[in-house]
């Protein structure tokens, strides 16, 4: 390619996160849901995403379906592999927020060390930890797929809450006790938090059909 | 969470790729640049991204800087690790296009097998291979960082084009000979291809400052 002065200028051209945020009319962050299986993480994340999409926001939900069968399909469930699973998800979230997208994740992510690793990887304020607080009994009662039952018999080993620990977040940005409130109320807590923090602006975002 | 009928409907709610594409007013694809070091991949990818951004499109460029230091920092340069490097990039691209983003990549990606792996991972038409065709002599003459010189002395082992093979694409969607045309002409070839394929629509996309 010819090195004209014009080209040299172009070579430096880069679209930045700030430019994307401005175009999208919202900031990008990692919204990290954590909690026991059946505590409501995935349901809340997807409904939050739907509401954000309706407001014109750019979003993506990472969950077991799109991660464990894809980029992390070569990982097992040893402590080391679980940590690498979370690390890769964190790195992907960083690329998504660089791309101007609100990255929501719905993983049990039972270890404080792993969650704090993501918090430290992210810039200040980019990591929002949301603890879906729900007692084991209620989670088990919701377990339509019967995975808790299989964990109880030992068919599924090292199952969080039964045969493996869940480390409660020490200072999450948001705590949602999902035992006795509706999904709508859970979702509103998240949307309100994002709005109060100035990540989304209900007046600025475009409402589309 | 209470199981009201309303909630059950919500549980199924998911924002799809099609919904995002409609909102973004463009389709999402993987634009995979391949070619020797200094053949122009990264420069062209970034200028294409800038033009697409100006048209209001959602884009992201994957390159060594944001991948090798992040999600793939635990990979080396053995044949196996190079393949895993490309596989993970491909899986990330799939998540980005699911998120409605045009994912551009700028990696030498010298092996046909690896590039075809991504093509097969993607849905029909989602993978656009762009071969930056440039002879070794011209690439070496552009090498401001002196990496070809270090490869010639053997300081950098298994360097593509010097001590490791580059397998020319057999049927890439676009071939750009970057030896004698300006960056602007190279970029125009990519933009025109995306337009002709209906991935972007110059009339529909919003022109922003």
Please provide a brief summary of the model.
The structure is a homodimer of 209-residue chains. Chain A is α/β, with parallel strands linked by helices. The first copy, chain A, is built from nine helices and five strands.
Describe this structure in words.
The first copy, chain A, is an alpha/beta fold. Chain A has a single domain (22-196), classed as 3-Layer(aba) Sandwich (Rossmann fold). Helices cover 44% and strands 12% of the residues of chain A. Chain A has 9 helices and 5 strands, in the order ααβαβααβαβααβα. Chain A has helices at residues 5-12, 17-24, 41-54, 64-68, 79-98, 112-121, 136-141, 147-152, 183-196; strands at residues 30-34, 59-62, 102-106, 127-133, 174-177. The first copy, chain A, has a 5-stranded parallel β-sheet, sandwiched between helices. Chain A is globular and about 55 Å long. Chain A starts with a helix and ends in a 13-residue tail after the last helix. The relative contact order of chain A is 0.20. The model of chain A is unreliable at 1-11 (pLDDT under 50).
């Amino acid at each position: 390619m010819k090195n004209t002065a014009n080209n040299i200028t172009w070579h430096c051209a880069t679209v930045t996160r700030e430019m994307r945020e401005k175009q999208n009319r919202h900031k990008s962050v990692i919204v990290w849901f954590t909690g026991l299986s059946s505590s409501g993480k995935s349901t809340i994340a997807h409904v939050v995403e739907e509401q954000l999409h309706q407001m014109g926001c750019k979003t993506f939900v990472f969950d077991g379906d799109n991660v464990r069968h894809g980029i992390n399909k070569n990982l097992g469930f040893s402590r080391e592999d679980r940590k690498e699973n979370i690390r890769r998800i964190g790195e992907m979230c960083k690329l998504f927020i660089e791309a101007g997208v609100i990255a929501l994740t719905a993983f049990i992510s039972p270890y404080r060390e792993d969650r704090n690793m993501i918090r430290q990887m992210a810039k200040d304020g980019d990591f929002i930890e949301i603890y879906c607080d729900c007692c084991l009994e209620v989670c088990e009662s919701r377990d339509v797929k019967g995975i808790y039952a299989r964990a109880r018999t030992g068919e599924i080993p090292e199952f969080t809450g039964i045969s493996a620990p869940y480390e409660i977040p020490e200072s999450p940005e948001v705590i949602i006790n999902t035992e006795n409130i509706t999904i709508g109320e859970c979702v509103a807590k998240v949307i309100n938090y994002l709005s109060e923090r100035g990540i989304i602006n209900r007046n600025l975002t475009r409402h589309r059909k």
